[in-house]
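[audit] Reproducing an earlier prediction to check determinism. Same input, same settings, fresh worker. If the tokens differ from the archived copy the diff job will pick it up downstream; this log only records the rerun itself.
[audit] input (74 residues):
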Amino acid sequence: MPQKATFYHAGCPVCVSAEQGLAHALDPAQYDVEVVHLGDVPGRIAEAEAAGVASVPALVIAGRRDTPLLKAMR
């Protein structure tokens, strides 16, 4: 069963580029990716903050921003 991944962004060119390059590059067999444009749905900002998002773009996997996958990418 795929892990939930949420990509938060604000619609700026950097965010859109990151969405195209990262969020859509994840294997759909392993990750169920939801893209959230916080400018369109500001009610989800608190959700993003609770997951550890301090700035966008940000990718949250399995409810946590700081995951082993992201640590390996640093």
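[audit] rerun output stored. Observation attached for the diff report: DSSP finds three helices and three strands in the chain.
[audit] end
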